[in-house]
């Protein structure tokens, strides 16, 4: 297995719930840092809703490994941001037996 080409700069973001003042919460995103990544697209899907169409594309995003518990280690329900593009992380696993890299299984959702 060849080494990944980490040529895309992605911002790792974590969801945070803040009180809305009316007894509920608003979700906001906090940047945890920037990671270099290799981004590979899979086969997309399209779902037609009543008012919009949602396209969903799976991605395999590879980054350098980080120890468990480190803020730079991606985990499910976080997301990557590249400008206006958002990639929601669904699962994370080691890419290689030496655990030098992590593969993040993510989806980019675009409404039209």
Give structural attributes.
globular; mainly beta; 62% strand; 6-stranded antiparallel β-barrel; 0% helix; 112 residues
What does this structure look like?
By secondary structure, the protein is mainly beta. 0% of the residues lie in helices and 62% in strands. It has no helices and seven strands. A six-stranded antiparallel beta barrel has the order 1-2-4-7-6-5. Strand 3 and strand 4 form a beta hairpin. 17% of the residues are buried. The model has no long low-confidence stretch (mean pLDDT 89).
Counting helices, strands and paired strands, the structural category is mainly beta
Low-confidence stretches: none
How much strand? over 45%
- Biggest sheet, in brief? 6 strands, antiparallel, barrel
Distance linking N and C termini = 38 Å
Strand order of the largest sheet: 1-2-4-7-6-5
Number of helices: 0
Output the helix-strand order: EEEEEEE
Query: Over the alpha carbons, how many angstroms does the gyration radius reach?
Result: 16 Å
What percentage of residues falls in helices of 4 or more residues?
under 10%
Mean pLDDT: 89
Tally of DSSP β-strands? 7
User: Tell me, what's the shape?
Assistant: globular
Task: Set down the secondary structure blueprint.
Layout: E1 8-19, E2 25-41, E3 45-48, E4 53-64, E5 79-82, E6 85-94, E7 101-111
Antiparallel strand pairs: 1-2, 1-5, 2-4, 3-4, 4-7, 5-6, 6-7
Kindly summarize this structure in a few lines.
By secondary structure, the chain is mainly beta.
